[in-house]
Amino acid sequence: MHVKTDADDARIRKNGCDIRQLYPWDGVVVPPWNSTLCSIRPTESSTPHGHATDETFIFISGEGHLRVGTEERQITLGDVVYVPHGTDHKVTNTSESDPLTFVSIYWLQPAELGKDA
């Protein structure tokens, strides 16, 4: 059994999010996708950005607003969103007190393999 604890795992600040890298997991497994646990602080937003990877968000706590390209919608616990590669996106936490947390799973499409993510 391999275990990563929340208390012992490192966090980085990237694109306006507090990020905990889940996969790849050094010394355990390198799947064909990567995954992070992302948290947006109350009343804050991620930096609008796009990248070479397709991405799926699974919202696990909080509520907020999401913009993907020109589409916008409210998001909440349990929502799952697909973001195509190259599409600008931004997540906003609309709460005054609680973080907005989601799992991001991202991967390169076969045509994009070998390019920078």
Task: Provide structural commentary.
This is Cupin domain-containing protein. InterPro entries: Cupin_2, GPI/OXD, RmlC-like_jellyroll, RmlC_Cupin_sf. Keywords: Metal-binding. With 117 residues, the protein is mainly β. Helices cover 0% and strands 46% of the residues. The protein contains no helices and nine strands.
Write the layout of secondary structure elements.
Blueprint: E1 12-14, E2 17-23, E3 34-40, E4 54-61, E5 63-68, E6 71-76, E7 80-83, E8 89-93, E9 100-107
Antiparallel strand pairs: 1-2, 2-3, 3-9, 4-7, 4-9, 5-6, 5-8
* Order of the strands making up the biggest sheet: 1-2-3-9-4-7
Question: Largest beta sheet, briefly?
Answer: 6 strands, antiparallel
Oligomer: single chain
Discrete helix count: 0
> Which parts are unreliable, with pLDDT below 50 for 5 consecutive residues or more?
none
Choose one word for the global shape. Answer: globular
Number of strands: 9
Look at the helices and sheets and give the structural class.
mainly beta
Radius of gyration: 14 Å
Helix content: under 10%
Distance between the termini: 30 Å
User: What amount of the residues lies in strands?
Assistant: over 45%
For the residues shown, what is the average pLDDT? 92
From N to C, what is the helix and strand string? Answer: EEEEEEEEE
Keywords: Metal-binding
Protein name: Cupin domain-containing protein
InterPro entries: Cupin_2 (IPR013096), GPI/OXD (IPR051610), RmlC-like_jellyroll (IPR014710), RmlC_Cupin_sf (IPR011051)
Organism: Streptomyces virginiae
